[in-house]
Amino acid sequence: MSILCGLPILECVYCLGCARWLWQKCLYTAGHESENWGLATAEEFEPVPRLCRLILSVYEDDLRYPLWAPPGGYGINPDWVIVKRTYEETGGCATPYMIYLDHDNVEIVLAIRGLNLAKESDYAVLLDNKLGQTKFDGGYVHNGLLKAAKWIFDAECELLRDLVEMNPDYRLTFAGHSLGAGIVSLIAMYAVQNREKLGTIERNRIRCFAMAPARCVSLNLAVRYADVINSVVLQDDFLPRTTTALEDVYKSIFCLPCLLCLMCLKDTCTLEEKMLKDPRRLYAPGRLYHIVERKPFRIGRFPPVVRTAVPVDRRFEHIVLSCNATSDHTIIWLERESQRAVDLMLEKDRIMEIPAQQRMRRQESLAREHSEEYEAALRRAIALDIPQASYSPSYGTFAEVEEGESSGSSSGAGSLLSFKRMRERWDNFIERLFDVDESGRMVFKKSST
């Protein structure tokens, strides 16, 4: 009899778990994770659509006669393509890639395409991983992606070194999408650890843009390499939000039957504090840029807004079961929406008519803000007891975090947000002082004069 009396209580607990699952899977959208992040600027986000087009060009067999070019073309010069590798040349060890010497933007780019659903070798790379299987620089990384990254780095190391030495003022940029994004993230980390193999190149000349990346690094590495790696996520993209094993990806996307599965409820209801303290759990790498263009219970797309931060907690933990979860992952949509976002940012800057000198000062202040955000993220990680999140002098990016500075968890998060709010306060200050006349030029308000 006592067992029967306890059944209603168990049913209530189960229903509450199902309701929380529904919230996190179906309604946890509209940029909920990034609602407190700061806004990105045109200067820092401008390379994203350009690199997306460069990644798209890797799919072409002949760049002089492209078949799948986006509106406006790829914007590249075929004569500047140094090398272009196919599946036959990589032998299935990695996806096809291209090395491009971009003289217009003063950078050497290694671009890697994403997963090919028709190639078993790509599945083999993605599935080659177990929790805690591979350690790297005091953290954990995806085993299959690291092997692919090392293969590409070893194969092209001499060529990259020659290009770096012949172009001492050029940046070395790694760019990739989906599976390729995970590979280039680990190539960038591996290159930073082996800079002597690339000649005389400083850490600040190496950068990586991972478009819709797979979760490939532990949390301490994701934060510590945020000055090198930039991850771009479009709205509800499923891959940065779920585990990298392919069968888990599909289980997470098509898991309506899991309403009756206690395992799914267990994973969904696991406390985030417990997940953060698991040193083997993998995350999207580096600084995050989240493109938000839809709102809950609204129809259609809105002008895209790009938010950015170096978050520690709330780092795309829960997958979203929306009708756009898979379409947001495609490189085509990512290129279109990132270009729209850049155009809106540039239009806003044009209306405000920011002088060139002031623009340079804004770039310098942006670099300082990013550096301060890294320090705040490290303080936050130490306050949350993230394993192996302590300062390492070999990175040369973060100021040393003393114990007294990391006593409260809220102080790190507050300082993380304050730096971005400074930029918003400046925009508000300009709006209070100036008006836009009929010709589109800015003039002082009468009340201010």
TrEMBL record:
Residues 10-75 form the Mono-/di-acylglycerol lipase N-terminal domain. GO terms for biological process: lipid catabolic process. Gene3D superfamilies: alpha/beta hydrolase. Residues 109-244 form the Fungal lipase-type domain. Keywords: Hydrolase, Signal. It comes from the Eukaryota. GO terms for molecular function: hydrolase activity. InterPro entries: AB_hydrolase_fold, Fungal_lipase-type, Mono/diacylglycerol_lipase_N. CDD domains: Lipase_3. Residues 1-19 form the signal peptide. This is Fungal lipase-like domain-containing protein. It comes from Populus trichocarpa (Western balsam poplar).
